Amino acid sequence: MAERKADPTPWGGKPSREDNEVRFQKLFEEADAMSIQGYLPDGTVVYWNRASERIYGYTAAEALGSNLLDLIIPPELHEQTAAAVRAMFETGQGTPPSRLALKHKDGYRVPVYSSHTIVAVPGRSPVMFCMDADMSALDQAEAELRVAAAAFESQQGMLITDAAGVILRVNEAFTRATGYAAAEAVGKTPRLIRSDRQSPEFYRALWQDLRTAGFWQGEIWNQRKNGEVYADWVTISAVKDEQGRVTNYVGTQTDMTQRKNAEAKITRLAFFDPLTQLPNRRLMLDRLQRSVAANLRNHRAGALLFIDVDDFQTLNDTLGHDLGDVLLQQIAQRLSVIVHERDTAARLGGDEFVVLLEDLSSDLTEAAAAAKTVGDTILTSLSQVYHLQEQEYLGSVSLGITLFSKQESSVDELLKQADLALYEAKAAGRNTLRFFDLEMQAAVTRRAALTNGLREGLRRQQFKLFLQPQVNCDGTLVGAEAVVRWHCPIRGLVSPAEFIAVAEESGLILPLGHWVLETACALLATWATQPETAHLTLAVNVSARQFLQADFVDQVVATLDRFQTNPRRLKLELTESLLVDRLDEVIVTMSALKALGLGLALDDFGTGYSSLAYLRHLPLEQLKIDQSFVRDLPADHDSAAIARTIIVLGQTMGLRVLAEGVETQAQRDLLATLGCHYFQGYFFGEPMPTDAFLALTSAAKVDAACATAVPES
Ligand code: C2E
Ligand code: CA
Ligand code: CA
């Protein structure tokens, strides 16, 4: 590098005009924004002004005498630069100005706008002058602008106003959200998108914040061009100049509609029933809880109404679930019309609805009357005809009501009470309402105690089978009906009339029924070994719930097998309630039992849903005339007429007819005259322990008198 150093005096010779030269020299030296360098054809630096020192990092002392290529030309540009310099000196022409990235002493690149001029003075070595303007600051500013522009076109709506609030610019997102194009917004104020949901005070407070803090953020209801009002999350910042004066405001806005919608949807899902849009169980319980607390405080009574659709299952089974859903929706609509705003109609699930009446009255009687009025309105409204798509449907509901007031009752208790009252309403024949009262409560307590007692009794084998004789026309013992007895150590001997219903409700009828079946089969097996008893039949009562078990036939088969019982001696007594629904299933089971050889009797005939239509389809062997038609014989003509009809019906269908509850000779005689062949009742014997029954079998005739009254048939 040292050998390249040549004449270090750039300004050889005498200037023609001294003044100018001094001035130009000073200008060159001090031109602040412009790096000016001078080079000989071989690249030796002969001039290096102050700006060059700053821009490239070399002092004049370091630069002078050094070579251009070593100083500021990045290695990758060496060849190209050398060629360009050579060409310039050859032609005497500079190259057009261009942007270059040259090298700083510290190694980084300096962006410059560079122009080159060959200054040739006769008699002197030509010199190439380079004038480089430093572009770093400008580039930086441009880059910042680019970033700012990109940021401005972000997903958030943005607007910039002047100090007076007049819109200068809006971005694309603003246009997307509000519907106003930039041209429509610029020149207006943000009042353009104001809705009337915010009060003037709101805006006053906003401006107050902006003035004092220079910043505001919060939710604002804005209005789109199409009139739609929406929630905007807005931030506004004041932009100030060096003197602290506000020059602009920059506002950003985020449309909250989607988020609000999502939130609303989540709330709806959590607290409302999707099918009917009514509050769901959760929301209802919450309101009930609060209502109970409030009514305690203000000593006013409220009411809880449980509503259950009558025969909903049947509707679902016959018309399909879709129409079932439509019915539920229409019920919900009708309920919403009836129920006041401050009260709640909710859907608990399935076909159960609930109405919560709050703040009825401080007087309990008045509150009850008010609740009854609403209840009656509900009953009337919900029993009007429904239009389920094309179908007309006549539905009804049952209602259970409980009141709550001063005395502290838990939500759980209230639900139980209303449910109980509902149960009573159902039992009372549907399309009706019942209030919960203390007697009901007592009955429930009794029922619960009885259930526990029964469970205990089953475990401790406190049950016995009693047998009641069944005789034919000439008084010959043909068999017995087995009726169960409970020897409860606390209650004494309890009649099945008291506990069968409870056993059915609790499901205990299943183990109990099974025990009866086993005991009866075991008994028949021992009878089969003795000539006096081998021909006798034994009838057992079978509850609907027991009969409807999917494996009932299997249970019967297994039990018969176990005791090696002759199926022809076993009879099952079924009640008409069994035939109310699932008739097809019932017939299949009955047929299977009949195929096994069992006899099937229809118990309590005439009391139930007697439909003669179905009777033909049932594989029955016997009809039992209910005791209620026997009781008033022979005096009561209606009873006699019914008994006669049943007997004729049985005969035409080839069924044996047995009269139950025969207590007198006169009853027996009349029934026999009407054509009845079999009898059972206190006249022939009350239900008795098996031993007592065995004693009877040795007597030839149970009722000797009978023989004289046998009609010729
Ligand atoms: P049920 O099947 O109609 O049984 C006949 C009922 O009438 C018996 O009452 C019997 O004691 C009574 N009874 C018989 N003859 C006369 C009479 O001449 N006059 C009067 N007033 N009553 C008479 P019990 O034993 O109290 O049974 C009541 C009901 O309990 C039975 O009515 C039956 O439905 C049910 N039950 C009894 N045992 C069982 C059982 O093992 N399983 C099932 N599922 N139910 C049973
Ligand atoms: Ca019976
Ligand atoms: Ca009966």
Notable traits:
713 residues; alpha+beta; Beta-Lactamase; five-stranded antiparallel sheet; 27 helices; elongated; binds ligand C2E; binds calcium ion
Word description of this protein:
The chain has 713 residues and is α+β, with helices and mostly antiparallel strands. It folds into 4 domains: 123 residues, 2-Layer Sandwich (Beta-Lactamase), CATH 3.30.450.20; 108 residues, Beta-Lactamase, CATH 3.30.450.20; 164 residues, 2-Layer Sandwich (Alpha-Beta Plaits); 261 residues, TIM Barrel, CATH 3.20.20. Helices cover 43% and strands 24% of the residues. The strands form 5 sheets. It has an 8-stranded mixed barrel with strand order 18-19-21-22-23-24-25-26, surrounded by 6 helices. The longest helix has 22 residues. The structure holds ligand C2E and calcium ion (2 copies). One calcium ion binds next to strand 23.
Overall domain count: 4
What fraction of residues sit in β-strands?
15-25%
Contiguous low-pLDDT stretches (5 residues minimum) are 1-9, 703-713
| SS element count, helices | 27
Shape designation: elongated
Kindly report the CATH topology of the largest domain: TIM Barrel
The set of bound ligands, ions and cofactors reads: ligand C2E, calcium ion
Would you identify the CATH H-level superfamily of the largest domain?
EAL domain
Derived structural class: alpha+beta
Which CATH architecture of the largest domain? Alpha-Beta Barrel
Radius of gyration: 53 Å
Number of strands: 26
Strand order of the largest sheet: 18-19-21-22-23-24-25-26
The main pleated sheet reads as:
8 strands, mixed, barrel
